[in-house]
Amino acid sequence: MAYYESVFIARQDVTPQQVEQMAEQFAGIVSAQGGKVTKTENWGLRNLAYKINKNRKGHYVLMNLDAPAAAVHELERNLRINEDVLRFMTVTVDELENGPSVMMRKSDDRYERDDRGPRGGDRGYRPRPARTETEGDE
Amino acid sequence: MSAAEVTETPSAPATGRRAYNRKRRSCPLSGKNAPKIDYKNTRLLGQYITDGGKIIPARISGLCAGKQREIATAIKRARFMALIPYVVY
User: Fold this and answer.
1) How big is the A-B interface in CB pairs under 8 Å?
2) Residue B12: its pLDDT value, please?
3) What burial letters (b/e) apply to B27-40, b meaning 16+ CB within 10 Å?
4) Helix (H, G, I), strand (E, B) or coil at A38
5) One-character DSSP codes across A48-110
6) pLDDT by residue (tens digit) across B23-52?
7) Quick check: A89 and B77 CB within 8 A?
């Protein structure tokens, strides 16, 4: 079976509970068709970059799927029918991410600099060895 | 001024050679621990779009052809999912 990553945006005025229900419903459709939902991620209510059907915000849900093509077709058919879904997109991926996606960890991983160490640095500054009084005397 | 002349750098001398040979930086996304190109990573994609929302050409971004293509698809996907805008006014 192939790996897919499916994201849909739900309307801004549905409640978070309803969004959870929708995610479960869609997961049910996939598993009914012999697929597996390996991860469901709720990104919460996010601002949209532009208005979609007069919505300024939307609930984003990501689902990682390991499913046959038929399951994806059935899922997409249902996403199209559901009026609370503003937009959806399914892409094939080479491998499924197990951990949280970039969206979820955004805040903690600053731009990857582990290969060069932290920014700034001491610019070669080394504190001068403290001059001991005996040195100058002799 | 003809169109062919416009593409050349204004400071280029009449010989048609570049005024200075700046060393081309290697592709910043090709290295060993380069970040993975993903349409969800809006902060990474943000580095490859202009303030107006356009995709920065490879000539300027310095990406290799393959990575530029990946970035372009990722940007288009992110735009579709309203993660980044198509146009910024």
Assistant:
1) 39
2) 43
3) bebeeeeeeebbbb
4) strand
5) EEEEETTEEEEEEEEEEEEE-HHHHHHHHHHHHH-TTEEEEEEEE-SS---S--HHHHTTT--
6) 767 888 787 788 889 999 999 999 999 999
7) yes
A52 forms bridges with which residues in the sheet? A55
Confidence of residue B19 (pLDDT cuts 50, 70, 90): low
What pLDDT, in 10s, does the model give residues A10-23? Answer: 999 999 999 999 99
Interface residue B46 vs chain A (CB under 8 A)? no
Chain A residues in contact with B46 (beta carbon < 8 A): none
Which amino acid, residue A3? Y
- Quickly count: other Cβ atoms within 10 Å of residue B42's Cβ: 19
Which is more confident, B61 or A105?
B61
Contact A58 B82 (CB under 8 A): yes
* The token pair that represents A45 in the structure block: 């209510």
Which of A49, A91, A115 lies nearest to residue B83, judging by beta carbons?
A49
Q: Which residues pair with B49 in a beta bridge?
A: B55
Residue B35 is predicted with a pLDDT of 86
pLDDT at A68: 94
Chain B positions in Cβ-Cβ contact with residue A106 (cut-off 8 Å): 43
ipTM of model: 0.73
With tokens 């399951």, the residue in question is A71
